[in-house]
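pipeline stage [seq->struct] | target=Tripartite motif-containing protein 3-like | organism=Patiria miniata | residues=577
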Amino acid sequence: MATALKTISSLECDICADRYKQPKILDCQHSFCKDCLEQYYTSRHGGQPKIPCPLCRRETVLPKRRIQGLKTNFHLMGIVEEVSLQEKVARSVEQTSSDQSKCQKHNGEVKWFYCETCEELICRACTVIDHCKPEHHYIDSGEASRKYKQSLKEMFPNVTTGIKILQKALATSSQAKQKFTQNVTKTVKAVKDKADKMRAEITTQETKMIEEIKQLQQKRNKTYDEHQSTLTMMLESKKHSLGTSQDIITTASDSDFLSLYPIISKDLKSLKSQNPPQIDPKLSYLSFTLGQRIGDINLGKLEVEAVKWEMCREFGKEGSGPGKFHGARDVTATQPGEIAVADYYNNRVVICSNEGQHKGTIPVQSKFLSCTSIHNPEQRLFVLEVGSKYVKVFNMKDNTLVTQFPTVPKHQVNKTKMNLSRLAVTKDSILVGNTYKMVWTEHKPTDGEILRTIPVQTPPYYLAVDDKTDRVVVSGGDTKKVDIADSKGRTNVTIRPTINGEPVGYCMGVCCDSSGIFLAVDQGGLGTNGHIHHYDLDGKFLDCLAQGLRAPCGITFTSNGELAVADNFSIKMYHKV
C-alpha cells in the first residue's frame, strides 16, 4: 500500500498538485502539465527564450513553438494512464501505449521509426514527407530504444560518481558547519570570559583609585581644618581687641583711658601687622584624565577569515656596529614601539625601535640564546646565555643587571646538568625550556621562585604561550614537530610541518595571537630555505605567509600588531594586508 501511495504521489504535477495532463519534460528532467507550464511561462517569463524550472530553477531553452514545442513525457503519461486504468478498470495498458504511438499527422499510422536528427518518433509516411534522407537519419523504434537505453546506462556511472562527490561535499559542508557552530560557542564563551575579567580589573582599579582619592581627601581636609582654625582664632582675637578698645573709649575716665592707652595701642598695632596665613591653592586641584589603556585590558576584535601578510620593511645587515647583526636568534617586544634582539655572535642584546633605529645595547658574557620581557612598571628583560644555568634579569630603564635566578633549587645547581633553551611569558609567570631534562619550569617574574616543573614530550627548543587558552606551544627543533600542550604539559595536538610535501628540517621560533600560531620552519642546508607558517589554534595549517628566509629563529608580535622575524643578519617586519 505504501509503495502504491508513493507511486501515485509521484504522478502529481508540482504546480497544480493534480495528476499530470499532457506532461511536458524540461532539460532538468522535471515534468509539469502543459497547461500549468503555459500559465507559469505566460505570467512570469512571457516572451523569454528560456524558462527556469519551477522546482530547481535550471533553465531550458524553448523551441519555436514555446511550451507546445516541448517534448511530451510519454513514459510518464503512460504511467499516469496506467494508474488511472487500474483505478477505473476502463481500458488496458496495451491500448494506451498503442494510442500514444500513433501519428496525428497521418491518420493515426503507427510510429515505427525514430528520427535521430529531430529526436522524435515518426511513422512510415513521415520518413517520406517530413523526415526523408539524407537530411534526416532515422532507425527502427525498437533499435532506437535499445540504443538510447544503453546510451543512458553508460551515463549512469558518471552521474553516480557525481552523486557520491556531492554527498561527500555535503558531508564536508555539514562537518564544517558543525565545527563553525562549536567555534561560535567557544568564541562567545571566550568573549564573555574576557569581558568578565575586564569588568573585574576595572572594578579593582576603580576601588583602588577611589580609595586613593579618599585618602587624599582626608589628608587635605586636615590641612584645610588646621588653616581654618588658625584664621578663626585670629578673627576672634581681633574682634575682642576691637570691642575692648571701643568700650574703653566710651566708658573709661580720662585717667583710666590714658593709663590703658599704651597697652591698647600696642595691641591694635600688633594686630594690624598680622596677615592671615595663606593656603596652597594647588591643594584644591583634583582632576581625572581618561587613559588610553587600563592595565592590560584590550577586549580585541573578530577573523572570519584568514588574512594575508606581507613584509613592510627590513633593517640590519651583517656586522657588529650599530644597526648590524651577526646571528639574530631571538626577538621580543619590550615596550610600545621597541624590540630587543638576541645578537648571538656579537654577545649582546640590541634595543631598537620598530623601525630599526638603534636605542642601545646590553653586553652579555657569552653567546645570547633567548630573551623575553614583561610589561609592568618594573620593565624587566629576561635573558638566557649559552651554557648558563641562570636566567638573567635586566632593568630596561637603564639596561643594568638586576638579578639572576636558577631553574632548580640553588643547592642543586652545580649538581644538575641542563641545557636552558628558550623563554616565554604567561600572564602571571615566566617559562624556561630545558631540552636536556625535557621540561619547562615556571617562575614568578618578581623573584624567579620556582612554581612548577612540567615534563614535556618534545624538546622545548622554542616556546610560546596562547593567552586565550593558556596552552603552551613547544617547537622541537630537529624533531621536526610542534606540540600544543595544556598547562600541565599534556599534548593535545602535534603539528608536523611540511614544505612542498616534504617534512621540514627544523621547527624554530613560534608565537601566538588570537588568530592562531605562527611558526618559523627551515628546510636545512645553505641558502634561503626558511618559511613562516600560520596555523589555527587547533593546529590546522592556514597559510605560508613568508618564504626565502635565511634562518628565522625568533619571531614575536610588536606593540602595533606587526610580526617581527629575527632572520640571521636582519630583522624583517610583516603586517596584515
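stage status: PASS
auto-comment: Confidence is low (pLDDT under 50) at residues 1-7, 90-94. The first strand starts at residue 23 and ends at 25.
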